[in-house]
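Format notes (please read before filing issues)

Several people have asked whether sequences and structure tokens are stored in separate files. They are not. Every record keeps both together, in the order shown below: the sequence lines, then the token lines. Line labels are part of the format and must not be stripped during preprocessing.
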Amino acid sequence: MKTESRLQIYITFKEFFIYLYRVLFNSKIDYIKKAENEIKTLTSANYCLLTSSARSAIYLMLKNGLKKNSLIAITSLTLSDVVNMILCAGHKPLFIDVNYKDGQMSLKDLEKISKKRKIDAVLVTHFFGQMCDMKNLKVFCKKNNIKIFEDAAQVFGGSQQGVHSGNFGEAGAFSFGQFKTTSCIKGGALITNNKKIYEKSIKEIKIWKKYNKFEKISLMLYVLLVKIITNKLIFNLFIFKIFKFGNIYNVSFINSFLKIEKKTCCYNILPKKFKKIQSNESAEMLINQINNAKKNINKRLLYAKIYEKNLISKKNLVLTNLKSSEDVLYVLFAKVKNRSNFIKNAYLNNFDISVCYNKNLADLNCFKMFKRECINSKKIVEEAIYLPCRDVSNRNYINRLVQFINKY
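Then the structure lines:
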């Protein structure tokens, strides 16, 4: 029985060809400025700065938006590099637990710790492609004189009560990585309505280096390779069989390829790989992707609704609540008891389902100086899975998966 890769790269082969052509024969058109204008229009932000990654954007907005040594509240369920961007920007992280029901930052825990420590800012991570409860968070932060910054890496195109993600506070950061619903070869963006943050960030990146032709082509070839191996035919013939073997027999060498962060460490000096300027070629690709963003998101939401409508509510598997047009659904998040057994059975039945590879950062040795008890984060790390909702999925495939889950 055929399966489908849970991953999707929206970049077309035509866009790959145009990118390569632009790399070899430089264009005189400033696509970076064009893309920035497109993002400003979509998000209603006054300023936009394209970066080489969301991590770079987070670093810039925190360094240039706060006084040094500020205490920044951050969800414990995120990437270690996000915490490191706080440290590189000259600040201190404070881990906040998440809500068990949706994996988003817990306002209750934030309120609790704010009574003991003076928090200068909150870096909100909109996780799993779903928006946090920004309405109540804004009320709390305004009352306590706390600034809001958004890690909106997974929710470009998302909104809440008419406000686009990234535009609720001082500044926001987006990712346009290869698997995002709006993507390019490599890229991110910073948006803000604060002129000082924008001008200071512009000044800083002037000394950052550009990608050379070799780097641009190398990045393109990697993304192209991933697109080819996730092609339905190739994925079924070769790739899924390898992943299936690795998961059933717990082969760590194979399973490690799927992890977001293979190693976690703590550092406070910004690595050179983040001090890169977005390429003009990636910016051109991004413009095309922005124009298709809403269409791609709506298709993912359509498939997610199949799960919501047909999955039988069970104690051992809980689907996150969908919030209709507010969601982007980078992934469809669910929690399952005895996860390893569930994943093994899914692979035996030819379903490509992933565990959540994010870690509870508040519990890691590399961040032990910031250690804090985050009970819900611990639970989610052990139970979370990602269900496929890519927009080229076969409806029958989703229905078969729903039937499998309901019988499990």
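For reference, the curators noted about this record: DSSP finds 14 helices and 17 strands in the chain. The chain has a mean pLDDT of 92.
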